[in-house]
Specification:
The chain is an alpha+beta fold and 526 residues long. It contains 13 helices and 31 strands. Strands 2-3-1-4-5-11-6 form a 7-stranded mixed sheet, with helices on both faces. Strands 18-17-23-14-15-22 form a 6-stranded antiparallel sheet. A 4-stranded antiparallel sheet has the order 7-8-9-10, with helices on one face. The protein starts with a helix and ends in a 6-residue tail after the last strand.
Length: 526
Amino acid sequence: MPTLEEEISRRRTFAIISHPDAGKTTLTEKFLLYGGAIAQAGEVKGKRAKAATSDWMEIEKQRGISVTSSVMQFQHNGFCINILDTPGHQDFSEDTYRTLMAADSAVMVIDGAKGVEPQTRKLFKVCALRHIPIFTFINKMDRETRDPLELCEEVERELGIDTYAVNWPIGCGKEFAGVYDREKQRILFFSGETRGKKVNSMEVALEDPTLDETLGTEKAAKLRDEVELLGAGRDFDMQAVRNGTLSPVFFGSALTTFGVEPFLEEFLRMTTAPLPRVSDQGEVDVFSPDFSAFVFKIQANMNKAHRDRLAFMRICSGKFERDTEYYHVQSGKKLRLSQPQTMMAAEREIVEEAYAGDIIGVFDPGLFAIGDTITVPGKKFRYSGIPTFEPEHFMRVSPKDTMKRKQFIKGTEQIAQEGAIQIFKIPGAGLEEVIVGVVGTLQFDVFEYRMKNEYNVDLRMTSLPYDHLRLIESMDCHPDEIVLCTGAAVLQDFRDRYLLAFDGEWSVGFLTKHNPGLVLADTLSV
């Protein structure tokens, strides 16, 4: 029977990040295919295409985009792999940021024709702040792409990280024939292109004269020259990879599966086992026998039949056992986590045990919040908080049918607790209407869709002029007496804290000048 250390050491927990449409969800599907978790990969787009496994929300299947992070666990070559597939669209960046807090490493997918795109830069910065290893997969080599050397140089220039090409593409577009493995000094030719299926490969040494016959003399010579040029670059440094200062680069096509299997094999070999986490009482040893975890995501209504709510936990140390008593630090309550589950997007499986590095979902009766810590009784440390992001768009929202007030309150509160939106109220007013704040406007569409389909409530939504929100740290008067400028309002969150919403940073000067004693926080705290 494996020891605790052996079980934890074989865990790999990583997020997949990219700009929208770079192929992130398609790559996830192919990982699941090679791991034996699915028999046929689903494409993300296309009217007749099978929906991607990781896109479980109905709106995701309809629009062909990921709007919420999904969690998938599968076994492959002795590893237990936890994949966190994140939304690429910038409007859902909050969900992505929170998910990255639960990852030990990241796979950054880049479109070979477009290179480094705006959302890639944003997500990379979050990874860099945590110094987690970042592996680059340059995708869509089955299409016409930019020069591979130019792409590597752009990653270094734009993101400030060194690169090392682990393999090298042989052509692109219709002429993409495979990749050259630099360490093993072999060429992998791919054949049997069938979308959604595994592909075959054959090996040919770089010096083999049959290479000229297979590629043609000119292409073979070009490949040999490029490989020689790569040899003059920097050496591979595993420590730099694990420090997050060197990104191993792989080339391939997630759609046709060219290069995916060698990438997965090398990635699992290079990436780390679960890393220790920082708490308010110092670093927590991942191999400690004491179970601990933090909540990084809450999702309601994944199961239409039960309308339940799951809290997703990243296990940070020790071993989780079903029907064991644990301690919820924030509430000070002891609890037994009900029906612990591992995930395959919306599919679930009850688990008896799980280890550091694993992601589990537990039934949430309304107790958990994002960032909460769960430990064994007697331990009261808290893991570092997950940041709350300032909303940039606001709407006044109320139900069209006033008879559905209860459903309206329940829906808005539950979706807000997931972190998908932030809700506020006008001080002294009832809950017949709320102010909804989001980072990106597409979140309004998802919110409206979910309220209609999950809570049967049609909404009346009116846009508001605010684009900034600040927490009031202190004030010398009652909130009703604050002197406001045009386009500003006092709001209250559901923790009864007062905030100021306003239009434009210039308003801060007016508000502080006309309200002596008013102190505004720079950011929203958790």
